[in-house]
TrEMBL record:
Keywords of this entry: Hydrolase
SUPFAM superfamilies, per database record: alpha/beta-Hydrolases
Protein name: Hydrolase
InterPro entries attached to this UniProt entry: AB_hydrolase_fold
Organism expressing this protein natively: Methylopila capsulata
GO MF annotations in UniProt: hydrolase activity
Length: 216
């Protein structure tokens, strides 16, 4: 399958430093495939970047799955769209010759990344979930084999609350993920603290070599 045949509109930036874990960039509501490129480049300089555009439109704003109201998700659509995204990752790995990526997702993008981890274990080598909520009320049993997950929650977030973050953390831990949850003095928007925390986390994984070796 050629890059032109992939199932999502996307941007791919090839690696300039071999051996680094690639990043799958997943934007928030209203974003697109360019939104997180600068963030991905800052967090993982030289890594391959893969950034798809969500295929659901909410009043013209791209998303990765439908919701019924603020914070109320269409869980049947979550399951369908998580499967679509997992297939896209498999297509992209073949087309671009990349390892299983680490997801870097914000808000709706973080939620679909969590859904892919819980519904399609092995698709992602890990995830940095920024302002995430549980995408599924009762996720299926999964085995994530200590996949590293960073969760960055905002103490002042009116959308993805601390309770939401704690529930998702429990779900991921129950599936075997190695979760690091940090609560920042922030609201729903991203801050320099998010950049710094995610950069430290990614650098530690890259230095250990554990993710790249396991997913190549």
């Amino acid at each position: 399958m050629s890059a032109q045949d992939l199932s999502f509109v996307h941007v791919h930036r090839p690696a300039t430093r071999p051996g680094l874990p690639p990043l799958l960039l997943l934007h928030g509501t209203g974003g697109d495939e360019t939104d997180l490129l600068a963030l991905g480049e800052a967090i993982a300089p030289g890594a391959a970047l893969l950034s798809p555009r969500g295929q659901v439109l909410e009043r013209g704003a791209p998303r990765f799955f439908r919701r019924l109201a603020e914070g109320v998700f269409d869980e049947d659509d979550v399951r369908r769209r998580a499967g679509d995204l997992a297939r896209f990752v498999a297509e992209a790995r073949t087309a671009y010759g990349i390892a299983a990526p680490i997801a870097l997702g914000y808000s709706n993008g973080a939620n679909i990344a969590a859904a892919v981890m819980l519904l399609h274990p092995g698709t992602l080598a890990g995830a940095a979930l920024l302002r995430a909520m549980p995408p599924l009320t009762t996720p299926p049993a999964a085995e994530l084999d200590a996949a590293p997950v960073l969760m960055l929650s905002g103490a002042l977030d009116p959308i993805a609350s601390g309770a939401h973050a704690a529930l998702l953390e429990r779900q991921l831990r129950a599936a075997g993920a190695a979760v690091t949850l940090e609560t920042l003095p922030a609201s729903h928007g991203l801050t320099r603290m998010d950049l710094e925390a995610a950069t430290r986390w990614y650098a530690r994984l890259a230095a250990e070599g554990r993710v790249a070796a396991a997913s190549s």
